[in-house]
Q: What sequence folds into this?
């Protein structure tokens, strides 16, 4: 119908990468669970293994989708002492991967070898439901899974089973299916699953930049001029 479409690319990369790292650390070090113990009186005397989690130092991190956000996540995780980065996607990206010494591997190998799996890929027919029962069954029992891409990349029923049965250690999600997630959803009953309300881009600076870009797109469109960021249909 000749409707022009403007969008706001490249503005949420850093904010989403920061949130991905924050979510990963919260999950692997059990921060929400630990904070709840303080409030509920569960914090008593020191115990050697109480509230122990998993650290990033000397670990292997697998990134599904080494695009802008995936690279930004790896860039932030590298100083934590990650020993090895693996990645998978539609094809190798040697130039991008060189910065982290990341190795391109099949999805199955990434699942088997990673201590932490971070999903930052686009949702496509090829990626829909790719993190499923088979994927989780290949992961280590001590592995942590984080998804900040799109909810539909994950089969949530399979993820629930993997978490409830101890197939994987923990998971952190900023995206779900549907959104908002119903408050009675089984995943919300698990202590080893942290779910956020899709706040990957929720910094004041990022949202302000988005608003300005959207407004400039709209004004240019009304004037019949090329939009600063126009989707070519």
A:
């Amino acid at each position: 119908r000749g409707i022009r479409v403007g969008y706001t690319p490249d503005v949420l990369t850093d904010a989403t990468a920061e949130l991905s790292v924050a979510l990963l650390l919260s999950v692997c070090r059990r921060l929400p669970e630990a904070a709840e113990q303080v409030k509920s009186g569960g914090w008593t005397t020191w115990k050697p293994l109480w509230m122990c989690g998993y650290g990033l130092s000397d670990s292997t991190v697998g990134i599904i989708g080494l695009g802008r956000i995936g690279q930004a996540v790896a860039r932030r995780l590298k100083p934590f002492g990650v020993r090895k980065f693996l990645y998978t996607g539609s094809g190798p990206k040697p130039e991008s991967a060189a910065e982290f010494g990341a190795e391109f591997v099949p999805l199955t190998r990434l699942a088997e070898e990673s201590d932490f799996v971070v999903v930052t890929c686009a949702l496509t027919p090829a990626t829909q439901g790719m993190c499923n029962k088979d994927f989780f069954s290949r992961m280590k029992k001590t592995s942590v899974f984080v998804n900040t891409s799109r909810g539909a990349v994950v089969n949530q029923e399979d993820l629930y089973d993997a978490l409830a049965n101890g197939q994987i250690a923990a998971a952190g999600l900023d995206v779900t299916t549907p959104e908002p997630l119903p408050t009675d959803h089984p995943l919300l009953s698990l202590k080893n699953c942290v779910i956020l309300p899709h706040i990957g881009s929720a910094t004041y600076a990022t949202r302000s930049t988005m608003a300005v870009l959207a407004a400039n797109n709209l004004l240019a469109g009304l004037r019949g001029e090329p939009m600063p960021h126009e989707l070519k249909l």
About this structure: The beta strands are 5-6, 60-64, 84-88, 103-104, 116-119, 144-147, 170-173, 193-195, 230-231. The first strand starts at residue 5 and ends at 6. The radius of gyration is 19 Å.
